[in-house]
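Example record

Each entry pairs one chain with its bound ligand, zinc ion.
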Amino acid sequence: MPEISVEVSFEAYCDRCGSGICNNVNTRTSRNRGYPQITIAPCEACISNAVDPIIDEVDNLKNEVDNLNYEVNELKEINIDLKTDIRVANEKINELEERLFNLQQS
Ligand SMILES: [Zn+2]
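Structure tokens for the complex follow.
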């Protein structure tokens, strides 16, 4: 059967954001049926628009984790100081109770 090949030039734009995506488009012929096919890679602008806010959010969450870890460490240090103060206070109470007991005995 005779066949005529026709070259068709066309432009491609992202339907979502309107960016030109001609570099993302390839053409080929299907192996089985011989039909012309177009393959289109995802629009980089749309991928960036979707991914950039997530990267920013991840950075913000990392900063938040760092700040919370810093606060936890500060609270641990305060807790250690308070435990030391309580131990010293208990020792003084014991000492005073012992002196009081001795005074009551004499
Ligand atoms: Zn797009």
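The mean pLDDT is 95.
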